Amino acid sequence: MTIHDQYKNRTWVIRGLIAGIFLLFMIRLLVLQVINKDYAELAKDRTVRKVTVYPDRGQMYDRNGKLIVHNKPIYNLMVIPSQVKDMDTLRFCRMLGIDTIYFQEKLAEAKRYSPLHASVFLPQIEGEEFARMEEYMYEFPGFFPEIRTMRTYPYANAAHLLGYVTEVDSSDIKRSNGYYKGGDYIGKSGFEKSYEEVLRGKKGYRYMVVDAHNRLMGSLANGEKDEAAEAGKNVTLTIDIDLQRFAESLMQGKKGAVVAIEPKTGEILALVSSPAYDPNLLTGSSRTKNYGTLVMDEGRPLNNRALTGYYPPGSQFKALMALVALQEGTLVADQGYPCGGGYRMSGHTVGCHNHVTPSNVVMGIQHSCNAYFCFVLKHFIDDHNANAPEGLEKLKDYLASFGIGVPTGIDLPGEKGGNVPDPEDYDRIYGKGRWKSSNFITLGIGQDQMIVTPLQNANMMATIANRGYYISPHVFKYADGEDSLLQALSVKHYTKVDEQYFDVVTEGLSMVVKAGTARVARIDSIEVCGKTGTAENPHGKDHSQFSGFAPRENPQIAVAVLVENSGFGATWAAPIASLVMEYYLKGSISPSRQYLLDRMRNTNLIGTPTQPVAPEPEEDRNDPDVLVNDTTAIKP
Predict the structure, then answer these.
(1) What is the pTM of this model?
(2) pLDDT surpassing 80 at residue 217
(3) Which CATH number is 384's domain given?
(4) Is the pLDDT of residue 313 over 60?
């Protein structure tokens, strides 16, 4: 083949390539201009906007099917900074009820986020307010509405348990692996946070045609490219909202907490932290202002005292001390110890009140004898152990099996585990090898460095009611397709104490209410078991505490109550706990105890400018369940 023929062949190849490319362009143009109508619509109406469709967040119901959290529609005003043109800024600000400084700050913030992508300019505008703005929005290019939903609470209760929803921050966005973007909302506390993935659903998208005046003209391609949103799952909670409201009413004017648990299941029936607040305050456009007010409130209403409040358990701990000593064999059921006004050693006294000499465990618990349980601790630490650190480690291990000194595992965020001192604590205080049981003798009566939360006290009583096991307290009860969650929340945690030892301690707790320090907690026709506690508080007046369960046989409810700086356990905590039990078990309060209900509801213990702090009732000033002349740290 000649060189001329070779060039001639290459020419045909090149011509073929050019013809093929031209043909491809023609086919593509045919598709774009004739077959596919999307771009014809886009050319006509200027632009297409990808609109996020936010799913309805799952609603919440109480254990009896009452709706306690639902949604209502609101609007976010969005902005795309690059589309904001010359506009009447003053008129725009007046329409929104904002000032020009706020306008400039928010627009600058949006530009920093992205000049080309939408971000929230003004969040959570309610429907009526937005309706007044909607007809003028076309005058302000670059601004458009985004429909969202806002949490609404038919009952102004259970704020600490339910939690709240707020806008995501940078850390939320980073952790979400691309799911969240600026302007999205997320559960930030309580149940809303713990079950965010169950409640939030799945976002969808709509492709909307927008005209030159920034007005929505309809869906692109009749919605064929849209992605449907999936609503979050509706959830049934374990709480009884009527019981919750009742318990909150009893804690009005008081600082403290109430926790009620169904022992057999670990289900939380009520969880109160007082002072409380209306959860509706942290929704809508006033949320930021209201949040600031709550943060500055001296009563610290945002703190969840039920899960994070640290308090000595006081005499409530005596029942647990008896159980671990019985198991270890350093105490037997008919063991008696002398009292005579207190436990004495080396010239120091842990005081006690006047009562008959306790000749057995039941009497020791019934009369809340401080001396008795100082002896119990001494023998637990010193008998069968080579040294005090070994005995203390053993006690700590026993208590952990009851959920004391460790988190209980509740399915709400922020729980604290309390504190059971270990040898290292006393090494720091006294020096290694320079301490023994006498240094922390009041640990046996729930003092010294023993710290628990109200939730742990309630769980302790639920464990005793179950004769040796507990199921981690939880608030989740049911949601479609979430069987794995239910299984995880049904695991029994067994203590290191055998079932046989619980009967004697339960008898002691029953006698506390029948003829001991908590007679005020008696309920007609129901046998209540419980223990008062008057825990010393180095920062002020003692804390009033009570925990217990009812009925004794087949227990249905375990309750712990703490009222800060209010004095004796029998004065405030025991009545409140028994009223909560009675209301749950009977559905009402008997007429014979109406006076007690009125006193609990109407007494203010924290004081306001219009309502002074109530005086201590005369009949309760000699409550026997109190420490007298206590020396909490006695050196050897």
Answers:
(1) 0.84
(2) no
(3) 3.40.710.10
(4) yes
